[in-house]
Amino acid sequence: VLIAIVLFEGVTALDAVGPYEVLARLPGADVRFAGRRPGEVRTDTGALGLTIDATLDEVPAPDIVVVPGGAGTRAAAGDDDLLAWIRAVHPGARWTASVCTGSIVLAAAGVLRGRRATSHWIWRDALTAFGATPVEDRVVVDGDVVTAAGVSAGIDMALRLAALEAGEEVARAIQLGIEYAPEPPFDSGSPASADPALAGRLRDAARADPALRFPPVA
Amino acid sequence: VLIAIVLFEGVTALDAVGPYEVLARLPGADVRFAGRRPGEVRTDTGALGLTIDATLDEVPAPDIVVVPGGAGTRAAAGDDDLLAWIRAVHPGARWTASVCTGSIVLAAAGVLRGRRATSHWIWRDALTAFGATPVEDRVVVDGDVVTAAGVSAGIDMALRLAALEAGEEVARAIQLGIEYAPEPPFDSGSPASADPALAGRLRDAARADPALRFPPVA
What we know:
The first copy, chain A, is α/β, with parallel strands linked by helices. Helix content of chain A is about 30%, strand content about 20%. In chain A, strand 1, helix 1 and strand 2 (about 30-35) form a beta-alpha-beta unit.
């Protein structure tokens, strides 16, 4: 199972590493972190470097594609080489997946047109501009395209994907291996359960930041 | 808030990146990924490179220390320089934390002697050899030492730590920012809820692997 996880400058680390930690445990998994140029990219905070091991051209036929999100997706959604690669590999891939605002990159590549999809709750509505139907679910499976909500949702997405790819018993073994029995200390993980004032503050702050405005504008 | 996250060859990526994604969002957070030598280390699967930005000597007085786990902790628990650094920085740190088998490294440094602590469920009992009392909780706070269960538990641990460090409102905002409202597709995330036969198979396979044997033996 060849799994391509896309990296770019400004990626949110957990968007990529959550699915990686699950999918790398699939039987026969061959995970390739792929991007424009081999070498280090820095995550959205600048505090962590992740390594691109392969150029996109070197992974022309992945079985599973994962596109993470982060502040860097604004640039990634305007990167013609990346979008062309997504369009080229998606038809042959068994699953094309995203986490957080990675769905905006899939949308910009045209993959979500006419599909149901999700994204980080702050930016989910931006999907409509690309012909997709935003859905509030944490993980949305539409045919061979699987999208996840924000950041931490990539773990749930990848476990769903692991079950679709290799069966429920394999997915359950992976879940136990990574001891994924979450106990969030608070109930504020989604805008539906959080204090509306808190959600409003986060939404307004994010939308006021030009670096985070979607869809990409000139 | 100076946060040192230790990296080493064979680290489990999510052990480090889960807490990073939470703690980097603390107000005034300054996260330093620290280890023996600046440059890339490869994670336990070999499929991902993470960058060490600072030597341990360059981070002599962190406010928060996080030690992740992974197959590499067997070597890390025998790394005298790392253990000496942990012993040196722990008294001045407000919080010394671990994820997964990172607690074995804290234990080898003597930090867990006489304390309650946890680890990945397969290796939790190994803590007794270092004078610690293994506890089945997902996150264990004993004074200024916070230990987490396996891999994904680092996210829950870091949210607890964020609340202890900066207050519950800050922790709730971080939780909403990373949309942490988990929905595991199955209930097999802990040995208490998983099929006992599955848990037994995973435990036996892990314990049969000499690279994963704890406490470190010559």
